[in-house]
TrEMBL record:
Family recorded in the similarity comment: Belongs to the bacterial ribosomal protein bL21 family.
GO cellular component terms, A-Z: mitochondrial large ribosomal subunit
Species assigned in the record: Emericellopsis cladophorae
InterPro entries, per database record: bL21-like, bL21-like_sf
Protein name: Large ribosomal subunit protein bL21m
A GO MF term: structural constituent of ribosome
Length: 212
């Protein structure tokens, strides 16, 4: 019923005369809509006032660009302890139960005195009973103190010796190798041997015995 009334009254409303007060009230609204739809005018900014991508002013001849992000270290880090090796080496040597990370042919091993090492290869030129001086170490420590090298520790600080106890061999392995579309098969025999070492001595020298 309401739709029928609106349709019947539509021609009359189209021809109706709108009062001037209503016309004046609607005119600024239309103008505002038309003004808002226009594209904004962007004025060029001088190069010295342009902002950097990281929200900082571009550097010029008389201006240095400030840091855009917060500094991770606002104050310089504290200076290292002078003669730390000379001051702390006696405490490290006094504590028992030392451990060391020695490097043998590029392989690191974390051991203590009395431990055994099974090298993943057969060390050439050694026999059972030989004593080896291990002079490459990256870490020496005790319960409360640790000395780290960069990359290795001076060999005058410690003495680490290992005794060759013998060699071990794995069971014989036979691997059959084939190729596609060939009736021939090849058998490869392998029996690797390993050298066994025992850490017989581990001593850390005092600062008076070492000229650092």
């Amino acid at each position: 019923m309401s739709r029928t009334l609106l349709r019947s009254a539509a021609p009359a409303l189209r021809g109706a005369i709108v009062p001037p007060s209503i016309r004046l009230a609607t005119t600024p609204l239309l103008l505002a809509r038309a003004f808002n739809t226009t594209a904004p005018i962007v004025e060029p900014v001088p190069p010295e006032q342009q902002q950097h991508v990281k929200n900082a002013v571009n550097p010029t001849a008389h201006h240095v660009r400030p840091l855009a992000f917060k500094k991770s270290h606002p104050a310089p880090p504290p200076a290292p302890i002078e003669d730390s090796v000379r001051n702390l080496l006696p405490f490290l040597a006094a504590q028992p139960g030392h451990y060391i990370t020695v490097h043998i042919h590029g392989f690191p091993y974390l051991v203590q005195e009395g431990d055994e090492i099974r090298l993943p290869f057969r060390m050439p030129g050694v026999l059972p009973g030989d004593v080896l001086r291990l002079n490459r170490a990256s870490v020496i420590g005790s319960r409360d103190y640790t000395m780290k090298g960069a990359p290795h520790i001076d060999e005058r600080v410690f003495e680490c010796r290992a005794t060759v106890t013998g060699t071990e061999s794995e069971p014989l392995r036979i691997k059959i190798k084939k190729k596609r579309r060939q009736r021939r098969a090849r058998r490869v025999h392998s029996k690797h041997r390993y050298t066994i070492l025992r850490i017989s001595e581990l001593n850390i020298k005092n600062a008076d015995d070492v000229e650092l």
